[in-house]
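Key idea: predict the complex, not the pieces.
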Amino acid sequence: MSIGAIESESELDLVSRLRAGDVEAIEAAYVAHHAVVRGFARRLVGDNATAEDLVHDTFMTLPAAIRKFRGEASLRSFLLGVAANRARRHIRTAKRRRAMTERLAARDELLARAVDPTDELARRRLADKLSAALATLPLDQRVAFVLCEVEQRTSSEVAEIVGAPEGTVRTRLFHAKRKLREQLEDER
Amino acid sequence: MTDGLDAMIAALRESGDALPSDASVALATRLRLRESLGKRRGRKAGVFAGIGILFGATVSWAVATGTLRQLWAPSEHHAFVPAPERAHIVEARPEAPAMPAPPPPETQQVTAPRSEATVTAHRETKVAVANAVPPVEALYQRAHDLHFHSSDPTASLAAWDAYLAAEPSGRFAVEARYNRAIDLVKLGRLAEANEALAPFARGEVEPHGYRQAEATELVARIANKLGLNR
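Result:
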């Protein structure tokens, strides 16, 4: 039996345990997939603490959400879809937290003074700038942008995750990129 | 322009990559998830127990007061109550003292055990939930919840102190020390915060470099505020 076959069998077993309401299966799903969900959540909401809330929320919702899982995609893709759906309620919190950090930084003239010249800080500022611009997009465009451009997934994979046709994903991505370019151009 | 957007995309991509501190973050969320699932189960059990107790108490009360018999045979009840007796009750009312009448003894007898049972059930549920996680982890969980989900840094600071007192070099101690320092910043206790953040900023904390960039930024900001740079 190949490794792929074993993995898909154990995933089937996990899904059936989740469907049966087995609480330990939720923890097993967390152990197997938390890193991917966390990475996506961080890129999507742009705030680590809020991303952690989204990860928690995603796995808490799993027992109810798994009823819609038909096995056409992997459990990992399904979890990313659940996270994308649950993100709406967390995005406002993330925006508030980012705004607070920006206010603090502005008050202390940190941005102008460039207190810490390390690459890490510069990288974080660039990421924050994009997160702030992403916050102005509708959620479906934002999800499409993060999955396709930031996480570099194929449009067919993203279509599978968000449960929309591939053409729709491409359209959302097109609009997202256009709006972001316009917005960043205006800021210059 | 495209270069600028590409650089931002690359930066955002990296921001989602695993960090050295992710092991403790992942563990904290796992514990939180476990606790939330335990609470959900406890809540369900509590609701069922509550419904059961309420139903049992209602049936006992109905049996004790004869209400159940009346419900089963309402026509018989009317036959048993003679008209003069009812008239006597109505006539006696004006002569009754102004003080409020004591509650009927049957109600008292039934009410007392029901409330006791309910309280016991609640207590048992709470104890079961509290026992679901070890005490030190519960202290950590409480501090974590206060830190990230409340706007009370004083309470959060006290909770981190409680956790660190219980487990000064436990597996979450580093994160607890860092979050404690953040609470000190929020409370404006900048000198103490500076002292607490300094080892993080110097990269002396294991795992190496834990929150170093953030701590460096905060220490610089505190120094600026306290006028240490001048």
